[in-house]
Amino acid sequence: VVKPPHWIPYDDATAARLEKAYVARQGKIQLTAAYEANIERMLQINVRTGFSRNMLRDAPPVVPVARPASRDVEQGADRPSDIDADEPCMVLHVGSIVQIARDRGDGWAFGSLMQRAAGAPTDAPPVGWNRDQGWFEMENTEVPSADQLAELQKNLGGSGGASALDPPTYWDEVKNPLEGELFRLDPRDAKTADEYNRVQKAFLLTLPAKNFRIYSIDRVQNVSLWQSYSVKKSQICAREEDESKALRKYVRCWLFHGCPGDIVPKILQQGFNRSFCGKNATFYGKGVYFARDAKYSTYPLYCRPDPQGVQSIFLVRAVVGQYCKGVKDALTPEVRDAAKNLLYDSTVDTDPGKEPSIYVTYHDAQAYPEYLIKFSQTNVPKAHPAAGEAPHRMYRQNILEAEGIE
What we know:
five-stranded antiparallel beta sheet, 10 helices, about 20% helix
């Protein structure tokens, strides 16, 4: 049987194996001694010659109302059907502290993990679930106890821990702490001119300015995301006794993340969730990708223009922590301390000792989208930008720390 125009189906047993691998997001499986299937790229490959053929997943049409609802582990409650399919549910563990980012008012909320419960598993959950961020039922949570809050404060730096969650002093007044807001920077306004110029300079550092037109620069203010990021940063930087040394060693300000315009609202409210931010690349691992140089992230493959030719890019604060070279299709970084079963925090594109140009994070709270730039470009390079190049001579890992703003 041939499916038009030229697709030949696998036998039932092989098709079942392929479907199982597809659902599990398995990278590759061996079909026979001569052939393997690359599930990510949907290719059948001859292992001896390297010749490949495209594969087609002939799935039945999706009927939205028939899609099985995601379930809460303890109560078995149906997830509201109007939540986007690519937004995960969160695995809750007794004793963990979660920061609420969005409250729907119907008993469901979206949140991020601030403090993991002792003994809580860290392995990858099933597809559609996330241990660090996602939707959950409010009835399965309660207000943290005084002891839990004291432990959180201790992890943030003793009695001064509360201030570690405070947003930057240059933020405008926040109207709704449960929603992300955009604040326009105006280069003609004395209040925001310096901030605008600092962001613009960082963006254009590796770009031919004459080919780029900036339409707007907005500051992103999302209290929930900021606090989640601050907790993760404090946890990682606590490895060093000297805070300033830790900021220089583990924090990057800024990295770049380009995305299609329809993904921008999701990042504004939920941050860099791997379910919708990690779809373009897996070469250095299956995480969220950030570039040191804007010239990489402005490439249209990652920063797809809208019908008017306008592109979107985020300038990101990221706590990259300790990192290792990434492995294609890896779900997590390598182990950095086998005795304690600790993993590296991020993966990169370079070998040890070299300045990375690509960072991949695996915990949603490792990055905060600080600025959004809308722009267009002419004379777009045809060749894909090269990774692994030496940094620009004016590059600084943490601009704000270097200028004494943080």
